Amino acid sequence: MSITSIRKFINVNKNNSLLLELAKNNEDLIDFIVNQQIEKNREYIENNSIERTDLYPVYELVMASLSRAFICCFSQTATNSLLWSHYSNSHTGFCLRFKKDVLLNDLSLFDYGEVKYTNEPINLMEGLYDNSNPARNIIFTKDENWRYEQEFRLVHQDVARNNEDDYRVCKYSDESIDCIILGYNSSPECYQEIRKIINDKKIILKKIERSNYGFKLYVGTDRY
């Protein structure tokens, strides 16, 4: 819902309100009615009483949609020590490096994009002025403290049918992966297993290395 859509509603809908009938021929009166409703809703939201606003059905719809969405998260960096520590069992796992354009073409997606990092919470009222999508803003926004992840998210076109429907298996072509990067603590067994899986596929196998002069990580130049 936006200011434009509210104005359109006033102009095209028939009702028994004399005030709205008069507003159809008076731009200043339309602006007064629209702004009055917006300010009333803003006051409710600022007092944590969104359930009392006209926006509450929209809010419930947004929350219901988010709870049923399938979202896949990637990082745009392969050399962040925290990511390797948290998501790769202390640098013992591996990282898949995708060709973005090929992967996006392979998958059935509703939306995708980079995550925006901010200390400001999502403001539902802003959507009234800029026609923004509150559900998309929530999906693609995280707290500033997570900026190091450099996250990129994919939203599947399907949504969950019920509470037990909690994942989707996405198939992508071998061509979408151009490199597998081993953690610097990965074992020889891990290497052998991955080598067996990729076999003769045109996928580069590399390994993370750590600087001799600090904790900085980089992708080694050697191919395995």
Automatic annotation (TrEMBL):
It comes from the Bacteria. This is DUF2971 domain-containing protein. It comes from Salmonella enterica subsp. enterica serovar Infantis str. SARB27. The lineage of its organism: Bacteria, Pseudomonadati, Pseudomonadota, Gammaproteobacteria, Enterobacterales.
